[in-house]
Amino acid sequence: MAETVSESQSNGGGVTVKCIPAFKDSRTSKCQVHMRCHFEYSPNEDKDFPKGETGLSFQPCDILEIIDQTDSDWWQAKHIDESKTGIIPSLKLEQTRKAANLIPKNKQNKILGKFQKKGKKKIVYQTCKNSIFDCFDVRLYEEVAKMPAIENKVIAFVGTQGLGKKSVITRLLSNYADRYVSVVPDTSREPREDEEQKKGYNFMNKEEMHKDILAGKYYEWGEDKGNYYGSKLSSIRDIINSGKIALVDCEASALKFLRTAEFMPFIVFFNAPDMQTLQKYNQQSNSKVSTREELDRIIEESADISETYHHYFDKTIEGGNAEQSYNTLREVIEARSNMTHQWVPISWVY
Q: Within this chain, do residues 253 and 291 fall inside the same structural domain, yes or no?
């Protein structure tokens, strides 16, 4: 290079250097970008929609192919496997509009850890501190990639108590013991007389558990009467390494730690039905939930969870009727086993 420059200068000429990238990203070669939508949109109801343009409606979970992102406010897109194109609000525009209407609720006492609701325990759950900030984490579009179908390593279950979630998990473990294993939580308290290690809890040294909490090894944890309770990421890894699928019953605020390329979870949300249906289910079962106030609490908490974390959910199941919920989930799992491909977050691929 130096010899070429020297020779050119001696002849009174100049040198033009062209730089090209050493690596070409295959994703950009065809300019294809696919997005999963996390909100409902209709151009007919959008007062800001530009006149004379053709819009494109979509529902949550729809997959769109983004054709042109040149305009900062409006993208050209189409539904996959369809030819009709139209414009949709860009991420920048929709974020601006959503932020203007984002008035956070006081959810600190609504979206709490499951240990806090057990019996008379009162536990300040660590992950619930994040739920306040999660209210500001507004997901509108998520870039996704198409890949061959795989069996998920983890099935995560979220939803407020009183909707039969635990009954469904217990039944899955009973009927498919050779396939599924549930995560056993840790505790620093002393075992009771009738308790065994890894039968309900892993009994841990408090100092060691405290150290692991500070090191971020727990995806959720809490404290009650000076004792720690929590669930470890390594417990999920141990199940996966054994060749089985981990069933994880967790708080929605823990999903940010689980929805990764390492775990590739299938996330199921147990949603509360309307009050009339919930009362009917409650009367037909032997549920401990009996008062109108408790049923109101279930519906309100369920709505809060859905509003804040819906972008994580792969399947929403109506809770309250354990038999119906179990059958629905089993059908979903069987249908997924016959899939040829799936859309996953782009971070799981690149």
A: yes
